[in-house]
Fold this protein.
Amino acid sequence: MKKQILSIVVCVLTVVLFSSLTGAVESGPLAPMPFPVAGKAGPTAQSRFFVLESAVFNGTATVTLPIDTPANAVALILGESKVRALTGDQMALEPMVFEEQEMKRMNLPAGNTRFDLGDLPAGSRVLFLNNINGKRLKMVVSQPDTPLTLAVQVTPLAARSGQRVTVTARMSDEAALQYAEITAAPVGGSLFKLNDQGLDGDLLAGDGIYSGGFKAPAVDGFNGINIRFSAEGERHDGSRFLRNAISSVMVSQVRSGFVKENIAVSPVGLTVPVKASSDRYRVEVIFGNGETSLAFARENIEPSDATRLVSLPLPQSAAAADRALIRLLNRDTMGLEDETLIKLTPTQALPDLKTPAPTAVPLPPSKERAVQLMKEKE
Amino acid sequence: MKRRITRPAIMLGTFLILIGMTLSAGAATGAAFVHGKGDGSLANATTAYNYWGTDMLRASTNNWAVPYVVCHYDGRDYMWVAADAVAGQLYTFITQNNITDLVINTHSFGGVVIRWIFSNPDWDSRYPTIINATRWVNTIAGPHKGSEAADLAGTLSGSWLTSWLVGLLNQDYDSTFNCQTSWMAYYNENWLKGTSGRPALPKSFYTISGWGLWNDFCSECIGLATLSGVAGLPGEDDGMVAEYSAEAVGSLWFRTKANHHYNRRNSYRTIGNSLGTDFQ
């Protein structure tokens, strides 16, 4: 008992002393939103398109497009402005040549050609392309109205080098597919096949969710690794399909971390030991109760040869907190190097957080006038 | 010899001081413009000016009624690198003109760059001055939750088969990576304020989102409509940024039919006239 009291007193003194010495703590309330989860999955990316590449001979190339839903389908040919297209039955497609600065801003060719494929019948369609300047042709075909989508997700969104990254892919269609083969390739890594047989991180065999994984590579501090997905197979009617998608995992090389067993909690705050490192860090804490976020606190720390004790106050709005998620962010690399969830003892009952119906914050009068102006014009 | 100050002289002095204070208060309002991503030429002041165009700048400053600064940075950079350049220009503008009432207008990725500054006041000693001097921020078509078009660019960059070379040689633009949806999910979760579940931004952000594509069937419009269709931007979008992403921070000011090409201009829709109402 005495030991516990002594520990609390030391913790309180540390929080008070260090907070007053550094003075760089930022804290405050959070709107009651879902409490963040350590190891959270990334966003789901949905795709209704596929990418084709083809060799070009004497300015011509032939491609076969598996089209399932021609309505509003579009083919985009990158970096070509004079290309012409004929279908297998010699129907010429109308080229729409365009200059798109936004594509140039993304390091893609600005001059491109678009063909609308809405008049093609569904099925595998051959296109003869000529007047091609480049040595290889790259085209992307999108079918916005297709029921056949590829949805991909990466878990966790933020990984540490060496940590296993799980990727999942789900094909959705109006009826069960005859078969699908889905592969993933992290940029700079090896291509691997995803499975739906309950193996290698796949949670449930035959549920239509394909899974696979790889080890997050070593990176120079921090980097996002793009993962490219390819899916091909046959639909319920035996017709062929292709889909591609992309997602990313954000990988951090660990250079420091919490000394978790020495994290101390007192009625006024937390003391978090951070291992020695020559980098600059930020410790951020999200306080919550159950599934609800209540408050945050954060403090920046400078490089040190020794373990640093970071003291963070418990904001007033965190009095009802029963948990805290502590994150270690590297300010030199932008990496998330450590995160840990700890339990807290609430000192107050959780207030009624029933979120009132959202009411729009009134705009300043000048902005209201502008809204009226825009409504008249639109 | 002591000179005696007469009462009329004191009154005149007081009057001049009051006039000076009034003028100084008038001059304390200003406008700033922060462009989106692009290539290295956007580090050039003239290119950045042309990004907006004279008519947009004229209308947005209420016919040049307020002093303004057009920020310029290398459009290939990550948000914090771009923010470093932008902060330098904003800081100089604020301190040289005694600006205490700054309205910042951003387009596209410029909104994310400014959000970096407002989310990380302790990152740079100039940031607090900028934040304190700001009345509010207007973000036009900001990819606050990323852009599926940037995801598509990641899919299309380099060769599908030899993409690892592109990754290794780092030939892709940092700003395009920065705008991918996974990357923005990470930054929103850990480094930025203002999205759902994160600490509030220290000043108000007002968003303008675009939902039109075929504005006047210009070459740019074909490109944006194609990007929108191919990338599969969810919901309504302006060809580059879906409305859910543009409206992910702050309060919605208004939606516009102007696509991503036109919503930084005062031509197809008079966006600049609307921004100018901040100074009326």
Observations:
- The CA atoms of residues 207 and 239 of chain A lie 22 Å apart.
- Chain A touches chain B through 81 residues (CB under 8 Å).
- The helical segments of chain A are 2-22, 101-104, 365-377.
